[in-house]
């Protein structure tokens, strides 16, 4: 059962989404250390969804259309904000001396918000955990917590690998101005696409 959970989770986590995309952006722009901070922030963004699923609050998003729409649109709006920020920030993929410094707190805040405003993540936990934890299990809450923490660890590892891979290619990117511009605009477009996808998503 545990192996099935790991395999299912890895498939979900490894599928590129907003968190992975943000980690790659930070890796390309700021290097390995910053990509790890971003991966950590995205992992922390899972905590509210994990708690909601364990406490049953995620059921509200499943059954209450208004609540789902509010969270969904907030998330889509934030992704569009990220797209605009990346599009306008010419220093994002620029040499060290020209690049704006970003604090770890700011990076973590953005990463957490990206996941926090994604109602699909709460619904994913709400749908996933009951498949591996039965209501008859007297340690159901503990078991759900264990599975959730395992999911968080896997998320950090996979996102960190994405970020470190991006950071490895950073020097080649920074040496080619036209490529940097193309990548920056491509990432902005990707955030727009993900934002629109979320805005149009159904439960």
- Strand fraction equals under 5%
- Give the structural class: mainly alpha
By DSSP, the count of extended strands is 0
Number of domains: 1
- Percent helix range: over 70%
Q: On the 0-100 scale, what is the average pLDDT?
A: 80
Q: Main beta sheet: strand number and arrangement?
A: none
Straight-line N-to-C gap: 26 Å
Q: What ranges have pLDDT less than 50 throughout 5 or more consecutive residues? A: none
- What characteristic shape results from the CA principal axes? globular
Radius of gyration: 18 Å
Order of helices and strands: HHHHHHHHHHH
What count of helical segments does DSSP give? 11
Q: How would you characterize this protein structure?
A:
The structure is a single chain. The protein is globular. With 203 residues, it is mostly helical. The model has no long low-confidence stretch (mean pLDDT 80). The protein has one domain (18-199). The chain contains eleven helices and no strands. Keywords: Cell membrane, Membrane, Transmembrane, Transmembrane helix. Belongs to the Rht family. This is LysE family translocator.
């Amino acid at each position: 059962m545990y192996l099935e959970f790991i395999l299912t989770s890895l498939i979900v986590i490894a599928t590129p989404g907003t968190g992975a995309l943000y980690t790659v952006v930070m890796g390309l722009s700021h290097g390995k250390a910053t990509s790890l901070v971003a991966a950590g922030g995205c992992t922390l963004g899972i905590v509210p969804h994990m708690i909601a699923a364990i406490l049953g609050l995620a059921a509200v998003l499943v059954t209450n259309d208004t609540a789902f729409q509010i969270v969904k649109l907030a998330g889509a709006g934030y992704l569009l904000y990220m797209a605009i920020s990346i599009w306008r920030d010419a220093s994002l993929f620029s040499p060290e001396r020209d690049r704006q410094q970003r604090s770890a707190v700011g990076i973590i805040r953005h990463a957490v918000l990206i996941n926090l405003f994604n109602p699909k993540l709460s619904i994913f936990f709400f749908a996933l955990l009951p498949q591996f934890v039965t209501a008859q299990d007297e340690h159901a809450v503990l078991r759900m917590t264990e599975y959730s923490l395992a999911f968080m660890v896997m998320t950090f590892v996979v996102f960190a690998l994405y970020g470190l891979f991006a950071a490895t290619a950073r020097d080649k990117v920074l040496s080619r101005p036209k490529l940097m511009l193309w990548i920056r605009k491509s990432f902005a477009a990707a955030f727009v696409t993900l934002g629109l996808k979320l805005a149009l998503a159904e439960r």
